[in-house]
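Today's session is about reading a structure prediction critically. Students often jump straight to the picture, but the first step is always the sequence itself: look for stretches that repeat, for charged clusters, for runs of hydrophobic residues. Only then move on to the predicted structure, which in these notes is written as discrete structure tokens rather than atom positions. Here is the chain we will use throughout the hour.
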Amino acid sequence: MGKTMLQVVTAVALAALTASAVWAAGAPPLNPRTYGKGHTEEGKPEGIQAKTAVTEIAHWAEEGREDGDPVRLLLAGVGGAINDHATTGWETKDLVGDDEEPASPAALLEEAADLAAEEGYPTLVTFAGYFAADDEVGLGNPALARRIRNLDVGEDRDAALTVAGSSLDRIARRGRSAEDPQQLTIAAALWCAVGHATDERVRRSDVADLIEEAGEMAADQGRRDLVDVLIALAGDEQIGLGDRDLADEIEEQPVRKSPVYGTQYWCGYVGGNCYQWVYLGPFWAGEYTWVDAVGYGWGDLDAFLVDENGNVVSWDTDYTSICWMGVTPRWTGPFWVCLVSYGGPSYVELAAH
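Below is the predicted structure for this chain, in token form.
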């Protein structure tokens, strides 16, 4: 369905006025941590792909508590810490545990160390102490590290401390299929933890390949947050690989500058003859960033890219349901998109690169 010039002008004015009202109130219209890429099998938005890794972590936490298994609790704590180092995605506490059972990575790691000390697994306790203290990959919690290091470890058991690697491999496979470096980083950190804290035989070359793959993907997507974690994970001897050459290789790769927090994704429904605001986070100054949106429905889709001052800096108001916009900001600051659906409702997939 076509649009008159009055409709276009009205939509632009609406975008600018709504943006001004939102910023005057001091709050962004939407929170980027609650949106992401991907769909469930039913075709509905699933949210950031790393949610699948956090769901796995939730299972480990639940099973570890039920079975008194320090390994699964350790994996839940380590995976949660890596997930929370990322600047985008679901926070571990949002999906793991409840108010009666603390589910922060620190709480999970502490439970794992207490159980391991009680059952006589000194390697796990030692690793938990190192991980609690480290602030680049681990928790950066010296008080918890001191408490863990002061635990009285029972007599060393003869039983081997092992883990089923299938669940770790599953996170890595999902990361590859979704091109999600966050899941690959979590998988790499978990394999390092298994190698340090258990009796499981882990091939260093396989873990190195996984870290390298995650580093390349994170750099290509502009995920500086994950690149920093992977550099530390590659070089640290106590909780990572202790491979300085690999750490230097990851550090030397150019990290793509797109949105500050890497490529941003959103998907959701926009009602017929309605508009929807989407927060994209900050864009780097002097770096060209493009935004594309595709609507699946029965109407025309327009899009307006708006800066922090409410200025419409780019827009696409043609007669299709595909929108392309771009901007080279003069300063680093946040941007929003206003999506407008004419006619029937549209299911929209949007990305800022």
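Discussion point for the tutorial: The chain is about 45% helix and 20% strand.
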